[in-house]
Amino acid sequence: MQPLTISQLERETGVGRGTVYYYVSEGLLPPAQKASATRAIYDQTHVDLLREITRLKAEGIGLKEIRERLSGRIAAAGSNVDLVARQNEETRRAILQTAARFFAQRGYAKTRISDICKRAGVTAQTLYGHFPSKRHLFVACYEVYFTWMHAKTVPSVEATDDSAARMAWRNWASYGIRALSPDLQAAARLEATHEDGGLRSLVQGVYEQILSGPEQELAAERRPGANPGLFDDELLSYAFLGALESMQMRSSWDERYGKRDVIRNLVAMFIAVRAAYSGRVDLTGDWERVAGLVDTLAATDPGLEAMDHQADRGAP
């Protein structure tokens, strides 16, 4: 149900606001929800009831009888719907969709908040009420681009039983996000490392959506007893994404590597891990030879070790 202002309700039903207010006071309509001290929100229930009241009045039925006939609908109407929250979410979504298109077409630097506001039909105050800064809005668009590319690849992903093929499609989708906004992945990753930057949780949520597919693929490939304790599904899914972004960065430096090289290497890595998950490759012997070293390194701080080493050499 689409939230409506009183003006929109008037246009939709042909009933003046004075009559609407009277019907509310007489119990013929459920109260509107307050969006502010001077603004109320209505919904489709109000439209339907107003049309029914108008029809019954035209038949010569009095308001008292109309109220009795409609009492059940009036009591149930909109009682559990937070129209204000819904409208706020729809406004936020409209801003995001508009901003995502501007950023994709113009880039971050050339996109102006005033243009986004004009196209989305909101004030700057409303926009900043949802997104504290232009950078916050930019990073929030990561989820929009992911949603666009996810929708584009879902039919192909669901049409194949080969997890490696699904991995290839997801890597291709990542290139789609990069094509829409080349700087966005780097900005999102930077914000993800800031504990108090305000955007960390937003980026974390997007990453969880992006990686839910690969993580599920890995979990489905695991066989009991195959290379026990060596792999963590979530960490490996992040490793694949990190490798993808790093290879994309390398391929952007010159023409030595292209999209095919990046996707091929990522899918080959996935196939190798899949073989280990299924038990077709036994890595336990190789792991045992380095397990002690890994435990030792994990128990030390490389930064402090380097500083202490420089101090022993007499470095300033």
Keywords:
single chain; 316 residues; mainly alpha; Multidrug-efflux Transporter Regulator, Chain: A, Domain 2; Arc Repressor Mutant, subunit A; Tetracycline Repressor, domain 2; 3 domains; two-stranded antiparallel sheet; 16 helices; 71% helix; elongated
Average pLDDT reading: 87
CATH topology of the largest domain: Tetracycline Repressor, domain 2
Structural class: mainly alpha
Strand count, sense and barrel status of the largest sheet are: 2 strands, antiparallel
The tally of structural domains comes to: 3
CATH class of the largest domain: Mainly Alpha
> How many helical elements?
16
Poorly predicted runs: none
Shape: elongated
Query: What's the order of the H and E elements?
Result: HHEEHHHHHHHHHHHHHH
Largest beta sheet: what is the strand line-up?
A: 1-2
Tell me which CATH architecture of the largest domain applies here: Orthogonal Bundle
CA distance, first residue to last residue = 69 Å
Task: List the topology elements.
Elements: H1 6-13, H2 17-25, E1 33-36, E2 39-41, H3 44-58, H4 63-69, H5 71-76, H6 83-106, H7 113-120, H8 124-130, H9 134-158, H10 163-180, H11 184-192, H12 200-221, H13 233-251, H14 259-278, H15 284-298, H16 302-312
